């Protein structure tokens, strides 16, 4: 995966606002299309 577990944890805990690019990177890493 191209994203770190820290980034995922920050998004899951709501400590940071996920940016569209970050959300897209996560979707790509999980093999899911968000569009």
Automatic annotation (TrEMBL):
Residues 1-32 form the HTH cro/C1-type domain. The lineage of its organism: Bacteria, Bacillati, Bacillota, Clostridia, Lachnospirales. GO terms for molecular function: DNA binding. It comes from Candidatus Blautia stercoripullorum. This is Helix-turn-helix domain-containing protein.
